[in-house]
Design goal:
- It is a single chain.
- The chain is built from 8 helices and 7 strands.
- Helix 4 crosses helix 5.
- With about 190 residues, the protein is of the alpha/beta class.
- The chain has a 7-stranded mixed beta sheet with strand order 2-1-3-4-6-5-7, sandwiched between helices.
- The chain is about 40% helix and about 20% strand.
- The chain has helices spanning about 1-5, 20-30, 35-45, 50-65, 75-90, 105-115, 130-140, 155-165, and strands spanning about 70-75, 95-100, 120-125, 145-150, 165-170, 175-180, 185-190.
- It is globular, with a radius of gyration of 15 Å.
């Protein structure tokens, strides 16, 4: 039902920005089987279809952004291990910082001090909108925020997207993606992922 309700938002339909269209078409909704999908599926057989789909998206995003660092906030050890493997498959040289559900505040310091491009990977049920808004404000142009398990806490997403300016956001139902760029006008896209 979710997929059918978003059928008009497939593969970049209606997106006028060439940059956003390219991101949707070749990163978010890329259907080509990447080099590490099969190996990672064997490494993590316990992952259900949604977690495997999300992991494949993490690989494509890391491959696209080539981040210096990924900061994961609010995940348990099993989720962090799996997500780290997928992100690393996309960019082998990235540094990883995993912050537990109770220690979200140190992640803000880590983000503010590290050079290069960042991806903040946050678990929506484990964080609040205030924290996420402050975290996004500390990010630089070209950084991404992935709000995972968005379908469990839509209020956080709606609050953050409503407050922040100069971001491009993509609501993919299972997760939200925010791109930080002060030169861009605020845009919110709903994507059939």
């Amino acid at each position: 039902m979710i997929w059918l309700s978003r059928i008009g938002c497939c593969r970049g339909f209606g997106i006028q920005s060439p940059w956003a269209y390219s991101l949707v078409r070749y990163v978010i909704n890329e259907h080509y089987p990447y080099y590490a999908y099969e190996r990672l599926a064997k490494d993590f057989p316990e992952a259900d279809a949604v977690r495997r789909k999300m992991g494949e998206f993490f690989l494509r995003l890391a491959n696209h952004a080539q981040p210096e660092m990924v900061v994961a906030v609010g995940f348990d050890d099993e989720d962090m291990k799996r997500d780290k493997a997928y992100f690393r498959a996309g960019c082998n040289s990235l540094r990883w910082a995993g912050i537990g559900p109770c220690d979200a505040d140190p992640a803000l310091e880590t983000l503010g001090n590290a050079p290069g491009t960042h991806i903040l990977h946050a678990n929506a049920p484990a964080i609040d909108a205030e924290w996420l808004t402050e975290a996004v404000k500390r990010l630089r142009t070209g950084d991404f925020v992935v709000v995972d398990r968005l379908n469990y806490n839509k209020a956080v997403w709606q609050d953050v997207v409503g407050r922040l300016q100069n971001i491009v956001s993509f609501d993919m139902y299972y997760c939200g993606l925010v791109y930080v760029d002060p030169k861009r006008y605020k845009q919110n896209y709903k994507i059939n992922f």
